[in-house]
Each structure stands twice: as C-alpha cells, then as structure tokens.
Amino acid sequence: MADGEATAAPKPDVEPEAAPPQLFSSGESLPTPAMSKPHDPIEHDSGVEHETPRHDSLASGRAVQAKANRTKETTPSPDAKQSLPPRVISPPPVMSQLASPNTAPPSNDSASVCPFQRDDQQAGSPEYQEEYDDPGSDLGDETASLTETINSQNYQYRYENGRRYHGFDDAAYLLPNDEREQERLEGQHQAWVMALGGRLHLAPLKQNIQNVLDVATGTGNWAMDFADEYPSAKVIGTDLSPIQPNFVPPNCSFIVEDSESEWIWDERFDYIHSRTLGSTWRDWPGYFRKCYEFLKPGGYLELHEFTFPFHCDDGTATAENPMMQWSIYFNQAAARGGVDMEICERLDPLLRDAGFVDVAKRRLRLPFTGWSEDPNEREYGAFYGRIFDWGVSLALFTRRLGWSRERAELFLVDARKDAANIGVHAYIPLYVYTARKPATAR
C-alpha cells in the first residue's frame, strides 16, 4: 500500500463484507518509485547492472511476423540462409503429468484435440453446458510413444454467458478459453514484447541454453518464439487448456497440466518463465519452492506480472470511473477464490525467502488508450487497449459476485466507453522479476 492517504473506492453493490481495495490518487506515492518512463534501472541486490531493454517501433512488427510464421508454412529460396529450423507438425498437445495410466489417448482428430464451438454456433444451447470428447481411439504406436494419456477433465468444456471455459477445477480459474480469449492472449503476448523493447526475457541467458519451462503458456506464443530464438533449447509449455497449435518449432512441445498441483518432472530446467499468473495464482511461496527445486544450480526464474486495481497519477481517473470500478470488482471476485491481485507488486521478498539470489525487479506502466507522453508506452498501451477484452470478467462477476449476466453486460458497456476516453489517464502497473538459483545449491 502506498504511503499517504488513499482515496477510498465506493462500495460496490455486492455483499457488504467485501471491502473494495483502495486506489491511489494523484497526490500519493506508489508502492514502487513513480516512473515517468519505463527506462528506469532495474532494482537488484546483486550489484550487477542489467541492460535496459530497447523500445522501438519495430517490436510490434516482429510480433506480427512471428504470428504469421505460425499460421502458414513458408518455402525459402535455395539461396536463403537457414537461421532457424523449420516448424513441424507436432503430436497433439495431450501430455499430462497427472494423467491416469488407464486412460486411453484421445483421437488425433482436430475436433477432439481442441473442440471449438463459436458463440454464434450455440443458438438454442442451454445457459450451462458441459462437453468433452471421448478419448477412446488409438493414435498408433509411433504417436503414442511420444505422448502420455490425459485426464479427460482437461478436455471438458462448459459454455456460459456466451463464452467457453475449461472444465478443470473451474472454481480456481474463471477466465474463458474460447477463440476470443485466445486472440486476447496473442495480443497480450505482443504487448509484453513491445513493452520489453522487442525482447522475450530480461534474464541473462546463455545462447546455448538447454531445458526451458513456460508455466501457464496459454496459446503458447512465448514458448514458440523462444524456441525459434534459441534453437538449442528444448522448450515445454504447460497449461490447463489444450489451446496451443500443432504447427510448432521442432524444439517446442506442450503439456496439459495444473501447475499449482504437484510437479513430477524427471528433468531440471535452465530457465523457468511465467506470465500473468496474478489473476488466478493462490500459492506464490509454493510456486517459488517448486521452481527452485526444479531449476538447475545457476538457473533463472523470470516472472512477468501485473496488478489491479488500475492506477492514476493525475486525478483524471477517480474511484467513480467505470474502468476503475471494473478493476476493483475484479479484485473482489478474485479474492473470493483465494487470489490476492495486489501481491505481484511485492514478490521479491518471497523469492529471496525461497532461496533465490540476484533478485531483480522492474516496474513498467501499461496506459490504456496510449495517452502517455512517452512514445514507447504510447505505442504498446494503445495497442493493448484496442485488443483488450473486458468480457474476461463475466464468470468472475456472475459466479463470484452473484451478478446477473444482464447486469454484468450493462456495466461492461460503461467500462469500455471509459477505457476509450483518452482523457482518462489510467494504467496497469506491470512488474518483471528475475531471480537466480545459487550455483552452489543442490
């Protein structure tokens, strides 16, 4: 919580025991030193200066090109320099650490690997619907040898409020996994790369890095881009939902799992990466202990996180603004599932408690509508404001806060209008943490 007197948010129309988080007014200091531009030096305890990432206008082009490379196969000319291995059609992402050994592998049919059902195809469907595919067909000896059986719950979906959700422990993760959400995740990946000046990471990694784990990979964009950039690496991405593509780099694969459960890897990793776990993660100390255990001595952990509620430094976004209220309601709904949305601004002491050294923390801003005077913030802020989907909160508001769908939809209309107003100077605080397991550790 920042020093000074905080501006109290109005009490939302929910159960009285849920007190709204406090917002920061223009006269207050923020939890970390206020930054007018995202170029401030990294705070660290190692005495080693990290290079400040470059921001350039080509970052978004790089991200768009990366996506284009995944959507179609290109045929280089015979004289072209082969700097990266060709992408391959990988086995379907059906591996799972928690799979039952008696469960047969699923069909290699695209509809069963990841059955999409668009909202406009659900006319007449009930408000609540569950669906999963029968994992009864044989993949063949060659494919089966490359994959493990899966828990059918990971392929069980529910449809609600016009959106699709995964069916695995839905009390823990209430964000959708449909095509609209996948588009948001792909745009979020591009925004992070732009915010880091075209980089995928800040940790000082060796060029010949070997084993890499991407926790909660989502659509797998980061994992695939990292595999392209580091051909020597074996990159594994994990997620609750099997929404990753099959056309991937040859050194990249995906596994369906709940990373908040026990880890049973047979290998250790040189680098573990995760992004935006803050909206769902309940046990950060436990996560850091597992990362420490499964990192090789000298290996790095890197976190890309954000916090709610939104911040405003000049008073143009007050507690009454619908966009600000949206972030407050989001925090309240997350808290009812055991998630502290504000903890991501203070993860550094937890990393040290887990045994990590060289803990570094960088704070950035993501300004909606691109209102910032800083050209780099303006570029990626405006981009993210255009692709952000306010409807990701529907299940949180209806299931956790008890709202009707009609009430939630009407409120989201006001939030979208507020977010489009360039005169409202609200932003999302972003945090990047890097930490190293001591080389002397076991």
TrEMBL record:
Gene3D superfamilies under this entry?
Answer: Vaccinia Virus protein VP39
Which CDD domains does the record associate with it? AdoMet_MTases
Q: Which UniProt keywords apply?
A: Methyltransferase, Transferase
Q: Which domain of life is it from?
A: Eukaryota
Residue ranges of the TM segments: none
Q: Which SUPFAM superfamilies match?
A: S-adenosyl-L-methionine-dependent methyltransferases
Biased-composition ranges for Polar residues? Answer: 97-111
Q: Where are the residues of the annotated region Disordered?
A: 1-142
Q: Which GO terms describe its biological process?
A: methylation
Tell me the GO molecular function terms: methyltransferase activity
Where does the record place Acidic residues bias?
A: 128-141
Composition-biased stretches, type Basic and acidic residues, lie in 37-57
Keyword flag Methyltransferase: yes
| Methyltransferase among keywords | yes
Query: How is this protein named in the record?
Result: S-adenosyl-L-methionine-dependent methyltransferase
Phylogenetic lineage: Eukaryota, Fungi, Dikarya, Ascomycota, Pezizomycotina
